[in-house]
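Working notes for the structural subgroup meeting. M.R. asked for a predicted model of this chain before we commit to crystallization trials. I am recording the input and output together here so anyone reviewing the notebook later can reproduce the run.

Input as submitted:
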Amino acid sequence: MIRDGSGPAIPDFPASPNPDAENLRYRMAIDSAGLGMFEYSIHDGSFDANESWYEITGLGKGAGFDRFVDRVNTSGRERLNALLVSDEENAECKLELPYEHPRRGACWISISGRRTASGKSGAKEIRFTGVISDITGKKAIEDAYREQELIQQTVVENLPVGMLVINPATRVIVISNRYAA
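Returned structure, recorded in token form:
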């Protein structure tokens, strides 16, 4: 058991002598979190994904990674392709990409993964492995928060008296022009 004093003890799992059992444990954790898991071979285009990946992307079973990339908007596609063709051996990424879902329309996808090379230097196989999640709700909250900040700033700047607003939770400070003068 691991105890760090901040909560309940966390079981200390011994290293599994069975790699299949270890993979099953990871897959169960990823599936229960609702994450889409994938593995894509840049070398030959082979692709494997769990059921959640297909649900999140809205693509039919058997759709490959290229179909996913085609539905990412242009700027996001450029960032994703730059990672895929990178010369860096173990490039990690965390991208938030605008995505055109086949049924729901515009949404946002978060993709976290790693590009790895394996094999001999002359014939290395490049793979991209990771997880995706739908972060459309998170992006909507961020947009609403930015809009509220803009409204607050506009109100304070147009007050007939000077005003200083400090929000300790967000550390947002708004100063009216008349207060600064």
